[in-house]
Structures are given as C-alpha cells and as structure tokens.
Write a structure and sequence with these properties.
Strand content: 5-15%
Helix content: 40-55%
Distance between the termini: 58 Å
Oligomer: single chain
Number of helices: 16
Structural class: alpha/beta
Largest sheet: 8 strands, mixed
Length: 334
C-alpha cells in the first residue's frame, strides 16, 4: 500500500483517486476550493464533474496543499494543463529530492511549447517525473470499465513502479520510455477531436470523421518524426488509441465543444456549455507553432486554428481541406 495524493479534483483526478483507492492505496484527493473538499467529505461524490461515482469511505479530502503533499509516496498531478506551471510553483518548496510525481495533464504550453513533464522538471527539478496517458474517459474509469493506458518515465524502474501502483483487473498499464511522444499524441489528439466534433455538428457523417482521424494521425506522425519521436508511440495507446476515443466518444469534451461550434455556437459559448476545460483549445496554437518550428505541413491543425481564433467559417475550412492539391498517401511507387 502506498500513500498517494491526487492533486486536482476534476473528473479525471476524481476517477483516478477512486481507482487508486480501489487498488488498496491510502488516497487523499486535493481540491483548490475548500467548499468543494467539504462537499466531498459530506457526500463522497463529485456531483458536479463525476456524478454517480461514489468515493470510498476511507478516502481523505483536503483543500490544504501542504497537507496533501506531506509524507506522500506518490503525487498524482491532475490539474488542467493551463494550471500545471502555477501549481508546480506552489508545490516546489515542499517537494523532497526524488519525490515521484505522475502527471495526468494533456497539453503543450502555448508560450514555451513545453510538455507537462518539461514544466514539472523546470519548476520542481528535484522531483522524479512520470506520465500516464491513453484512451481513458473518467466516466468509464470511475465505473470500472476495462481500460488500457501507458506509463512513461525516464527510467524503466520508475515506469514499472507506476504500472504496479495503477494496474488492476479493470485498468491495464503498459510502460514506455518515450515521454515526449506520449505527450505529443495526448495533446494534439484534442485538436483533431475538435475538428471531428465541428464536422459532426455540421451534419457530416462517418466518412468525414474517419478521414479526420486518419489524416490527423498522419499529421501528428509527421511532426513526431521531425521531433525524433518513436512512430510506434503515436500509433499506440497514447496516440491513435486516444485519438479514436476522443474523436468518437460522447464523453469527449473536445468533441462536444467542436460539435457545438459546428452547430453555430462561438468558441466561448461552446466552452461554457461543456462546463469543463477543453484542452484542445489551448493546445491548438501550440500545435501550429510546433508545425512551423519543425517545418511540417499540418492542414487540419491549421484550419482548426483559423476556425477557433480567426473567425473562419467551418464549411470554408472543410472546403479548403477537400480541394487542396492531390497528394500521394504513400509516395514510394514501384
């Protein structure tokens, strides 16, 4: 049994806290709001973000960050990507050398193009950082539905340790050394899911969604190749696996936000209605900047940015993608 604090009480943090407690660990769930922590103590349920998932009686809840950090074997960072740097700065002075921090956030910082593990290591250099990512909606993990995911770390010992802590009969964990690749796939699949949602909202069908998933995965793979990322990572759980589930699931907040925009709502209106952080909106600009930095053509990411931030009509963006000059899918002709 390990003493673990999950930092961030959104739907994903809440589901992971439930999972770890189910695995027999001593779990504390930290919220940055005292009134939310008090509600959890009273109801043992996150009624706002994860209704119907009942926390175990032995789970502890707090809004005191120092209390959550004290004496923990593992810290699981489950705040939204945009809050990772500020949260790490608050944590840094309380983190001992070698403290294991497992990041769940999916995103790339817009200004720096840092991954989430880059940010943790910059702000808390004394920590030992790992990541956990893959096709895993909180709504299903919190109900014990079968899920497979990947743990990334700088060394095999750390990755295997994370694997053992999280793994259960309903939650299978693989390991990988490709932390950058895992995080690139995790962030950019949200951008493609926004595009898929927009297409669904406009009334396009399965053919369109399949095209966006397939060509979107190719765009991410092209960028990954330039960045030195292992191609197998982007066609694994944290790449194509997460891309498929995020582009197709009713639980996907990115697809849902895109769907609302496809029906005519503004980005701000869609985000408000989804009522949760839509990570793809924050990763879209970073994805486009990476494409420019590495001189990679990523037309779906580019058009998504233009729809999100430049007021381009979604149908115009679709026509641009469909009427581009013809290309080879595979260029090596016999």
């Amino acid at each position: 049994m390990e003493k673990i604090s999950v930092l961030g009480a959104g739907s994903w943090g809440s589901a992971i806290a439930w999972l770890l407690c189910s695995n027999g660990h001593e779990v504390t769930l930290w919220s940055h709001r005292e009134e939310e922590a008090e509600e959890f103590r009273r109801t043992h349920e996150n009624r706002d973000k994860l209704p119907g998932v009942i926390f175990q009686e032995n789970m502890h809840f707090t809004a005191d960050l120092d209390e959550a950090l004290r004496g923990r074997d593992m810290l699981v960072l489950a705040v939204p990507s945009g809050a990772v740097r500020s949260t790490c700065r608050k944590m840094s002075g309380s983190i001992r050398k070698g403290q294991l921090i497992v990041s769940l956030a999916k995103g790339i910082e817009e200004k720096t193009l840092d991954t989430m593990s880059d940010i943790i290591e910059e702000e808390i250099p004394q920590a030992n950082t790992a990541i956990l990512s893959g096709p895993s909606h909180a709504e299903e993990v919190g109900r014990g539905m079968l899920t497979a995911i990947v743990a990334g770390a700088h060394d095999r010992e750390t990755a295997v340790h994370v694997q053992k802590v999280f793994m259960s009969p309903v939650f299978r964990v693989y390991t990988s050394p490709d932390m950058k690749g895992i995080q690139l796939g995790a962030a950019l699949k949200n951008v493609i899911a926004l595009a898929a949602g927009v297409a669904d909202g406009m009334g396009y069908g399965d053919n369109t969604r399949a095209a966006l998933i397939t060509r979107g995965s190719e765009e991410i793979a092209r960028l990954g190749k330039k960045m030195g990322i292992h191609r197998r990572t982007l066609f694994g759980l944290s790449g194509i696996g997460d891309l498929i589930v995020t582009c197709t699931s009713r639980h996907s907040r990115n697809r849902r936000a895109g769907y609302l925009m496809g029906q005519g709502k503004s980005m701000q209106e869609a985000m408000k209605e989804v009522h949760q952080v839509v990570e793809g909106v924050y990763s879209a600009k970073a994805g486009l900047e990476l494409a420019r930095k590495y001189d990679v053509e990523m037309p779906i990411v580019e058009m998504t940015n233009r729809v999100l931030f430049e007021g381009m009509d979604a149908r115009e963006a679709a026509q641009f993608l469909m009427t581009r000059q013809g290309r080879d899918e595979i260029s090596e002709w016999d």
